[in-house]
Specification:
This protein has helices at residues 3-6, 13-41, 104-116, 156-171, 175-178, and strands spanning 53-60, 70-76, 81-88, 96-101, 136-143, 146-149. The chain folds into two domains: 3-41; 49-181, Mago nashi protein. Strands 4-3-2-1-5-6 form a six-stranded antiparallel β-sheet, covered by helices on one side. A hairpin with a 4-residue loop joins strand 2 and strand 3. By secondary structure, it is an alpha+beta fold.
Length: 188
Amino acid sequence: MPIRHQLRVPTGRVARGHRVSAIGGLLVLLSALLVSATRLAGAPSTMPASDALSIRYNSNNGSLPPPHRRDIRIRIDADGSTLIEHSRGYDASTTVRHQTHVAAEQLSAFAAWLTEAGVWSTDWREQEPRAIGGASQFLEMTFGERQLALPIQPVESQRALRDEIVRRVLALIPPAQSSEADPAPDPS
């Protein structure tokens, strides 16, 4: 006999009783989850691999003559592996690469801050009309199923949050590398 015919839903007073029991059970479960989350909030945690954060950051100082052109690319993978690339001019042969590692606790704390700050739920918008030329910054983050590319020139009301996100991304880089990872001036 197919499963759909074997399941019977009680009706009348019994059905209401089952609903009340189910709702009560759900409330108990939610309470237990909240208590567990509260207890764990103070302890350092590592995020599950499915919710690991990865980051791509690119910054340049605009269209300038080759001796003055600077470009930086930072890739932080979900496991914390980090690649930093610095280029001068437009020739790829000038690229200097540094490999380092960001601790899982740092990535986890940053991911938590992104959620608390409402970064994932913000309706990011690009400034119109966009400025042409000048320095630019590109930041893309992936967290589990979420993916977000911040606008290069966000609207005025979103610039402070975008700048704080960039500041925190650059703060993840170990000090020996961070002096070379200073962002180009904000083009907006």
